[in-house]
Automatic annotation (TrEMBL):
Record's subcellular location: Cytoplasm
Protein name per the record: tRNA N6-adenosine threonylcarbamoyltransferase
Signal sequence range: none
CDD domains assigned to the protein according to its UniProt record, in alphabetical order: ASKHA_NBD_TsaD_bac
Domain of life: Bacteria
Residue ranges occupied by any Gcp-like domain in the UniProt entry: 24-306
Encoding gene, per UniProt annotation: tsaD
Residues holding Fe cation: H111, H115, D300
Length: 338
């Protein structure tokens, strides 16, 4: 039967119902971004409390939109980690309690597996093997995907994640939180070639990333500039180009190294238009297919958790009723689904 998915790892409360035969039946999302904006970043305790307020109303609304009652559900999936421990515990406790009261199996999903599988919510989903670029607020990873749950880490960031680099760079130029999408919008007004920043770690072999030096380059260029609105847009554009080209170079390398012909992009930075366009062009030129989630499923959502949970529950995987979360959790340690 349909699986209820619950996401509460950070500052978005996401709920969805996914059915392996019928697809996504409904999804709802509440973002806490406006609440945290006053503090310039996510305040963990406020996040937990807001998940407590929003989660059950969203579960009711999602089931209503799907035209289902709790009795129609076949299982429950929730994000068990990685993420903020208090926020994770809200979703895990509600999901576990619901499953226990209904006699349903429940499974704790890895948040990054959720991101990684989000493109499977779209038409024409990619079949493994593929390479996945996971670029979000907390992660920048290249993963070789041999099957669902068969993940090998090819590359990781040595310092800032790609989304974190967007957010911190935006902040140092005075853009409001959350900076990533704001910086990307500003970059559209930037002029090509006005500034140029380096493509970190592309001059040597390997698939790891490092983005913190780029932030320093931007800071120095910005401080030395006239700080006009046009300059701000020019710097934003050069920064975005540097990140996007760096990611694209490493994606191509990962495809060559793994021999895969399909590339999946997921996580919040996957919503970046320049990144999507650049990789779609590279794929068309070089003969690999490129798969993204729709924009709203790049950032955190319940649909990706419901999907990942449905696949694992269908393979007979679920856990004892104990409520446990894993604020740190290695993606490569997951059991294969088949
Ligand atoms: P993780 O998934 O690693 O735990 P997270 O859940 O906080 O981290 P996501 O919700 O996947 O991260 O993505 C949020 C990040 O994506 C933020 O850093 C945000 O700035 C970035 N982001 C969102 N839209 C864009 C965009 N259009 N361009 C660049 N960055 C973006
Ligand atoms: Mg978020
Ligand atoms: Fe996320």
């Amino acid at each position: 039967g349909p699986v209820l998915g619950v996401e509460t790892s950070c500052d978005e409360t996401g709920v969805a119902v996914y059915d392996l035969d019928r697809g996504l039946l409904a999804h709802t999302l509440y973002s806490q971004i406006r609440m945290h904006a006053d503090y310039g970043g996510v305040v963990p305790e406020l996040a937990s409390r807001d998940h407590v307020r929003k989660l059950l109303p969203l579960v009711r609304e999602t089931l209503a939109r799907a035209g289902l009652g709790v009795g129609d559900l076949g299982g429950v999936a929730y994000t068990a980690g990685p993420g903020l421990v208090g926020a994770l515990l809200v979703g895990a406790t509600a999901a576990r309690a619901l499953a226990w009261s209904l006699g349903l199996p429940a499974i704790g999903v890895h948040h990054m597996e959720g991101h990684l599988l989000a493109p499977l919510l779209e038409p024409d989903p990619p079949e493994p093997p593929f390479v996945a670029l996971l670029v979000s607020g907390g992660h920048s990873m290249l993963i070789e995907v041999a099957g669902i749950g068969r993940y090998t880490l090819l590359g990781d960031t040595l310092d800032d994640a790609a989304g974190e680099a967007f957010d911190k760079t935006a902040k140092l130029m005075g853009l409001p939180y959350p900076g990533g999408p704001a910086l990307a919008r500003l970059a559209e007004q930037g002029r090509a070639g006005a500034f140029r920043f380096s493509r970190p770690m592309t001059d040597r072999p390997g698939l790891d990333f490092s983005f913190s030096g780029l932030k320093t380059q931007v800071l120095l260029a910005w401080q030395a500039s006239d700080r006009s609105e046009q300059t701000k847009a020019d710097v934003a554009r050069a920064f975005e180009e540097a990140i996007v080209e760096t990611l694209a170079i490493k994606c191509r390398r990962a495809l060559v190294q793994s021999g895969a012909r399909r590339l999946v992009i997921a996580g919040g930075v996957g919503a970046n238009r320049r990144l999507r366009a650049e990789l779609a062009d590279a794929g068309a030129r070089e003969g690999f297919s490129v798969h993204f989630p729709r924009f709203e499923f790049c950032t955190d959502n319940g649909a990706m958790i419901a999907l990942a949970g449905a696949l694992r529950l269908a393979a007979g995987q679920h856990e004892t009723p104990a409520i446990a979360v894993r604020p740190r959790w290695d993606l490569a340690s997951l059991p294969p689904v088949a």
